[in-house]
Design goal:
The complex is a heterodimer of chains A (226) and B (565). Chain A has 226 residues and is an alpha+beta fold. Chain A is 32% helix and 11% strand. Chain B is an alpha+beta fold and 565 residues long. Chain B is globular, with a radius of gyration of 24 Å. Classes of the chains: A alpha+beta (226), B alpha+beta (565).
Chain lengths: 226, 565
């Protein structure tokens, strides 16, 4: 048979032992303990590790990894896929034209839209009801990908606990509310590379500032100590 | 290509084993259509033939084509570790008589694969010692992956139908002074790391017989995929092995890209390789961390979780989610890499190694840990292959099979790295091997970072596959039409079938997909690496204590999401 199959073509022959030579091992060769290990001696080096971590943490030589939630919050990138936002037109009306692309593209089938005719003939349709079931939503961002109007985007708000299942279904009014034009609260949305460059510059600046402050503090300590 | 073929096929009656040839034959690997009468003999011959040596049964699954006379197909994927040959066997079956012999006597790993095929399609594997439902409830009626099974069907499943294992001690085992007791751990038990149920008969401390029950997290992923577009399946794959969801994304997208005959652009491939390796590190951290925490070493867990936390930060910067990333798209990535991607990776490369070193210093030569792990749940390489093991667990038993090395994909053949192999096959070596692999992954990442980000697009420039950029979609009619077509109809994947594997975090993660040319998968099957590994658990645990069982489980890295799909 001369058919060449693509998986066969992509074989790293060099990595294989010669056919007929390699046998799968039948015998097991478990690790044997050395004399020092029998005497539990390497435990001491382990103890040194925990002692090192203990002092690094207690004197705050290293920043602590715990975050005092909810007072302190982890900062997320501007791509974070959090609570959805329905964007608005300048006049405050919803931008969505009820084309159902988001509902079609949703792998979790959590978007419910009821469309009606828009009074403005240029706009055609608008959603009377636009609901997202937050308990079904998997926050994959497919609705944002699908939207041809930039009418649905995501915020970086991750905190959306409810007391009942009925509260988990979020309607149009609530989806429009979080949109406060605060760019720091935006999450996953259509991607424009220049925006990311801006954020990166800002972050670099912030890192530089922290580094400068740290260097200054270290210098001050050295002066005080000297 | 297959040397043994003429000699081997001549042993069987004409027409009983027919290699598929011609333009309709699957292009990915040789496919033989086998009559069920000769299946068992053929399988034994394929395993034992000195030139065949198909020692690893990768997968058994079913497929349903209601238009055909013989409606069902049982599909076997075989692999030969020494020769790297792959072979697919298809056994056509009729609806009225879906019986075929069980190959469990050839490959023990067939146990759960066959049970799954029985559950999903109703194939009756004659000679299987324990042919029960695997993933669905005992009270479930019908076979859900058959095409005529309505996905909206609901069943009332009650507890009185639930399976109660009856364990029997081996007959040759003498009575001891202890009363034999059956204990049940799970499904909701913190030590099981997921919803598994483990029922063990203990004689004193020693397990004499045990059984595991799974299926508590079955979410019909394969059935759901058949009703959603190709692109919509990506979020479902996140939930397979949720400790390293990026690896699943890559595995799935590569399979569909192969069917489409496209390749992701270099920038996407570069980022995929790096993020895959970071995900692997993360997954190994969880597996090793939970192994240690189960044996009482809590500190390591915190050291392991810091790298994991930081890697999640990197993934979040790339795609906006930490755990279920959905970061790949068919043909590339979901968005371009953030501008500080390289700096972030460099920081991680500095941050991770000291913590890994710390864990090694704590436990590597620690006799307390060694007493709990050396020689526990040991399995030889030969046995492990027979049980269809792959991945780190197999390499810890001395078999150097790594998909990244045997079938290089992405950028793995352009970087310098090694496949670590250990020969203990026990809990200790599985732990050690993962530590070695973390270092190799770091090595791969370091080399790729040094190369720099390749220029170019992050997703293929093909309007039939990738959504057009948003500004084009807003401003150009043509892009808008493509955008609508892609979302309403999905990507039109040419008809055909393929199996493609990648090295997942716990073994060979394969996707077997069949397309009928429409926008949705006709059949999608996941070759979950931990399914055969977990099916070995009762055998592994014989003669060990219950605390050993808990120590073993973390090291096998059984992830319920992937196990039960």
């Amino acid at each position: 048979m001369s058919v060449s199959h693509d998986l066969a073509a992509n074989v790293n022959r060099a990595a294989l032992a010669l056919p007929g030579v390699q046998q799968h091992p039948k015998e097991l060769m478990p690790r044997r303990m050395t004399f020092a290990e029998r005497l539990y001696l390497p435990l001491l080096s382990g103890l040194m590790v925990t002692i090192k971590h203990f002092f690094l943490n207690i004197f705050r030589i290293r920043p602590r990894v715990t975050i005092q939630y909810p007072e302190e919050r982890r900062s997320y990138s501007h791509r974070y896929r959090g609570h959805h936002i329905l964007t608005t037109r300048p006049d405050g009306s919803v931008r969505c034209v009820a084309c159902f692309l988001c509902a079609t593209n949703c792998p979790a089938e959590c978007i419910h839209i009821e469309a009606a005719e828009h009074p403005d003939v240029n706009i055609e349709k608008y959603p009377v009801v636009y609901e997202i079931d937050m308990l079904r939503c998997v926050f994959c961002g497919y609705c944002v990908d699908a939207c041809p109007e930039e009418a649905i985007i995501m915020s970086n708000n991750y905190d959306m606990a409810f007391f009942s299942r009925s509260q988990s279904i979020v309607g149009k009014a609530d989806l429009m509310k979080p949109f406060t034009f605060d760019p720091a609260k935006l999450g996953y949305r259509p991607y424009y590379p220049e925006e990311d460059a801006q954020h990166a510059a800002m972050r670099r600046q912030a890192v530089d500032l922290v580094a400068a402050a740290k260097a200054k503090a270290a210098g001050d300590r050295a002066v005080a100590g000297g | 290509m297959l040397l043994e073929e003429p000699a081997l096929l001549a042993r069987f009656p004409a027409g009983s084993v027919v290699p598929q040839e011609g333009p309709d034959a699957p292009a990915d690997q040789p496919t033989w259509v086998v009559r069920r009468e000769v299946l068992l003999d053929l399988c034994r011959a394929l395993r034992d033939d000195p030139q065949g040596r198909y020692d690893l049964l990768l997968d058994v699954c079913g497929a349903d084509y209601p238009d055909r006379d013989e409606r069902f197909e049982a599909v076997y994927h075989l692999y030969s570790v020494p020769t790297a040959n792959r072979l697919r066997l298809k056994v056509p079956l009729t609806e009225s008589d879906p019986k075929l012999p069980s190959v469990i006597s050839v490959w023990k790993g067939a146990d759960w694969f066959e049970r799954e095929a029985y559950d999903m399609y109703g194939f009756v594997f004659e000679g299987h010692p324990n042919l029960r439902r695997l993933l669905t409830h005992e009270g479930f009626q019908g076979h859900p992956l058959r095409k005529d099974y309505d996905p909206a069907r609901r069943w009332i499943l009650t507890e009185d139908k639930i399976y109660r294992p009856v364990l029997r001690a081996p007959a040759d085992r003498p009575e001891s002074m202890f009363e034999r007791m059956t204990i049940n751990i799970g499904p909701s038990h913190p030590a099981m790391h997921g919803t598994f149920r483990f029922v063990a008969m203990v004689d004193g401390e020693e397990i004499v017989a045990s059984e595991v029950e799974i299926g508590y997290l079955h979410r019909c992923m394969e059935k759901m995929s058949e009703t959603h577009t190709w692109q919509q399946v990506i979020p479902y794959t996140d939930r397979l092995n949720y400790c390293s969801s990026f690896l699943n994304n890559v595995a799935y997208c590569r399979t569909v890209e192969k069917l489409l005959g496209i390749e992701a652009p270099p920038r996407a491939v570069w980022a995929r390789t790096i993020l895959s390796e970071f995900s692997r590190i993360m997954d190994h951290c969880v597996a090793n961390g939970s192994t240690l925490v189960d044996t009482g070493a809590l500190t390591n867990f915190w050291y392991f979780f810091q790298p994991r936390e930081e890697i999640y930060g990197l993934l979040e910067a790339v795609c906006g989610a930490r755990l279920t990333v959905s970061a790949c798209r068919i043909g590339g990535l979901l968005a371009d890499l953030p501008p500080d991607f390289v700096q972030r990776c460099e920081r991680l490369l500095e941050f991770i190694p000291p913590l890994i070193d710390d864990v090694e210093k704590l436990v590597d030569k620690n006799r307390i840990w060694m007493d709990r792990s050396v020689g526990i749940a040991a399995i030889s390489g030969e046995e492990a292959v027979n049980w269809s093991w792959t991945g780190p667990c197999l390499r810890a038993s001395g078999v150097a099979y790594d998909v990244r090395r045997a079938h290089p994909y992405d950028l793995y053949d352009t970087v310098d790295w090694e496949v670590p192999v250990l020969h203990g096959g026990d809990v200790y070596d599985r732990f050690r091997l993962r530590m070695l692999e973390i270092r190799q992954s770091l090595r791969i990442i370091r080399q790729l970072i040094e190369r720099g980000v390749p220029a170019g697009p992050f997703v293929v420039d093909d309007p039939h596959v990738a959504l057009p950029p948003k500004d084009a979609c807003y401003n150009q009619m043509e892009s808008m039409i493509y955008h609508f077509k892609l979302i309403m109809d999905g990507i039109r994947v040419p008809a055909g079938e393929t199996y493609l594997m990648t090295e997942g975090a716990n073994g060979e993660l394969g996707f077997y997909v069949v397309s009928d040319g429409s926008g949705k998968p006709y059949r999608l099957h996941v070759r979950a690496p931990c399914l055969p590994i977990f099916s070995t658990f009762p055998t592994l645990m014989r003669g060990h204590s219950v605390s050993d069982a808990i120590a073993t489980l973390g090291g096998l890295n059984v992830i319920a999401g992937e196990l039960e799909r």
